[in-house]
Amino acid sequence: MRGWFGEDAGLPGTRYQVAFKRDDGRYLLAPHGQPVSSGQADLWQTYSRREIPDLFGLEYKAGLWGQTGVVFQDGHLFLLVTLSKEDMQEEYRYKDRFVTPERFQWQSQNATGQQTKRGQSYRYHRDQEIQVHLLVRPTRKIGSLTAPYYYCGLLEFVDWEGEKPITIEWAMVSPLPEHLHRLMEVGGEDIV
């Protein structure tokens, strides 16, 4: 309960609700008003940061999932990308964009070089049995609300260049569909 509602869950004066959903003969439980997960993410659907770990059978930990755009957990690497970066400090305006519907350009964090442990895990993710997942949102906010991320599926390493940050080209296992084409153009150059 505290993983969903915080440290005050269950204390006097608090009231939280959960929902049950039957799925293939079993019951799934989630906070009321949030989707009930069956342990998988659906391509092109939107999810909040808090929902993502559960979709992969992982535990949400605020320190791990809080605000960072790169999350390593139990054989999974999650790239959480906001394309429009006008409201960010210059040093965090990474050049992330869809190059084509089949290719995504992503820049690592500024401290990551090709020969670092993290850099090597990007390049050799298959050898290290790490699944790389792409989650993208065009903007940080929709009105006054935090925007959710579109789950864009798995990525495969193609090539890289540069140091601190590294610019990596990823192949998308599932190409970006036409209906998301225009929505995702805000992150950089138009998709070819």
Outline the fold blueprint.
Elements (H helix, E strand, L loop, with lengths): L1 H4 L12 E6 L2 E6 L14 E2 L4 H4 L6 H4 L4 E4 L2 E7 L14 E4 L2 E5 L9 H7 L7 E7 L3 E2 L2 E2 L2 E13 L5 E6 L5 H4 L11
Parallel strand pairs: 5-8
Antiparallel strand pairs: 1-2, 3-11, 4-5, 6-7, 7-12, 8-11, 9-10, 11-12
Number of helices: 5
Rg, alpha carbons: 18 Å
For the secondary structure, the number of strands is: 12
Following the backbone from N to C, one meets helices and strands in this order, namely HEEEHHEEEEHEEEEEH
Residues in β-strands, percent: 25-35%
Q: How does this structure look, described?
A:
The structure is a single chain. With 192 residues, the chain is mainly beta. The strands form three sheets. Strands 3, 4, 5, 6, 7, 8, 11 and 12 form an eight-stranded mixed sheet that branches. Strands 1-2 form a two-stranded antiparallel ribbon. The chain has a two-stranded antiparallel ribbon with strand order 9-10. The protein has helices at residues 2-5, 52-55, 62-65, 117-123, 178-181, and strands spanning 18-23, 26-31, 46-47, 70-73, 76-82, 97-100, 103-107, 131-137, 141-142, 145-146, 149-161, 167-172. Helices cover 12% and strands 33% of the residues. It has five helices and twelve strands. The termini are far apart. Strand 4 and strand 5 form a beta hairpin.
